[in-house]
Amino acid sequence: MNFSKEIIHWYLQNKRDLPWRKTKDPYRIWLSEIMLQQTRVAQGLPYYEKFTAAFPTVYDLAKAEESQVLKLWQGLGYYSRARNLHYTAKDIVENYNGKFPSTYKELLQLKGVGDYTASAIASICFDEVAPVVDGNVYRVLARYFDIDTPINSTEGIKKFKELAFEVIAEDDPANFNQAIMEFGAVQCKPQNPYCIVCPLNNSCEGLKNQRVGMLPVKLKKTKIKHRWFNYLVVIAKETETLLEERTGKGIWQGLYQFPLLETKKAITDIHSHQEEIKALVQLRNFSITPYNTEAKIHKLSHQHLHTTFWIVETTENLKNGILLQEIRKYPVPILIGNFIEEFNF
């Protein structure tokens, strides 16, 4: 049986109708691949459509303000992807005359473009034999060939890349790469794969050995870090509030938030933090009450944020205050965005 031909045949009959499959424009392929990292297609599709409407070309993205890019990205998470996207757009315009490099090796030089994205662009746009290896591909290969080497180990990364080179259709790398990713997403799913109607079921080693549910193997994740975030939602004279930009290299760099008091554990007596709060909001007189009495837990890849919003009301004038009706113009983490909608400023 020819693995690559079967996969492509399945793909041509079953592929989903997605906008980036109707083009070989490297800008749009690049956008879709960056957006779909750690993101389901159903979630990423509206963002792709918003981005291509706002920035039809790489020149448009390069000219945009970072805050505009982050605002459109709001809710997708992993905001370093958006910042790298913006940086790389400017790099392509300034140093490549607005044209994407056409080879895997050259594409790897772009910021935010790793092995997977470079392989996808090189194969789909320029027909280079450059196999993609993402989570879907790992799963298909691990199950079909019954390989239990951990996919996130150095040995596993090398082994599966070599295997991907062996099975790629050299005469049609673009369709093969899209086919194997789609096959993993739709047919060979993480849970409850459709093995009974799978076109590869007669030759799948994992199925034959009854190990499909155990594959692929992954090394245990990094230990989760717990943090306690206390957001100070200032309401001054029912007209203004405070937002601050997150700086540094931590999470959500460049996004805006309410003044933040981070503590080592949940606050049981807010009045014991009175001086810290005064310094953060630069107010002398105010009342403070919890908006949520039970912390909301916001889960990131390696940390859980135990979050409480505190409503700080005052009749004083704010330094650097913003009008309440302007609050939705700022790019904020989804955690803050959800609160803004719920609180209904």
TrEMBL record:
Domain HhH-GPD: 35-186
Cofactor stoichiometry and binding remark: Binds 1 [4Fe-4S] cluster.
Annotated EC: 3.2.2.31
Catalytic activity: Hydrolyzes free adenine bases from 7,8-dihydro-8-oxoguanine:adenine mismatched double-stranded DNA, leaving an apurinic site
Gene3D superfamilies reported for this sequence: Helix-hairpin-Helix base-excision DNA repair enzymes (C-terminal), Hypothetical protein, domain 2, Nucleoside Triphosphate Pyrophosphohydrolase
GO molecular function terms listed in the Swiss-Prot or TrEMBL record: 4 iron, 4 sulfur cluster binding; 8-oxo-7,8-dihydroguanine DNA N-glycosylase activity; adenine/guanine mispair binding; metal ion binding; oxidized purine DNA binding; purine-specific mismatch base pair DNA N-glycosylase activity
Pfam families for the chain: HHH (PF00633), HhH-GPD (PF00730), NUDIX_4 (PF14815)
A GO biological process held by the record: mismatch repair
Cofactor(s), by name: [4Fe-4S] cluster
Highest taxon above the source species: Bacteria
InterPro entries, sorted: A/G_AdeGlyc_MutY, DNA_glycosylase, HhH-GPD_domain, HhH_base_excis_C, HhH_motif, MIG/MutY, MutY_C, NUDIX_hydrolase-like_dom_sf
Primary enzyme class: hydrolase
Swiss-Prot/TrEMBL keywords: 4Fe-4S, DNA damage, DNA repair, Glycosidase, Hydrolase, Iron, Iron-sulfur, Metal-binding
Family affiliation: Belongs to the Nth/MutY family.
Function recorded in the entry: Adenine glycosylase active on G-A mispairs. MutY also corrects error-prone DNA synthesis past GO lesions which are due to the oxidatively damaged form of guanine: 7,8-dihydro-8-oxoguanine (8-oxo-dGTP).
Protein name: Adenine DNA glycosylase
UniProt source species: Kordia periserrulae
Lineage: Bacteria, Pseudomonadati, Bacteroidota, Flavobacteriia, Flavobacteriales
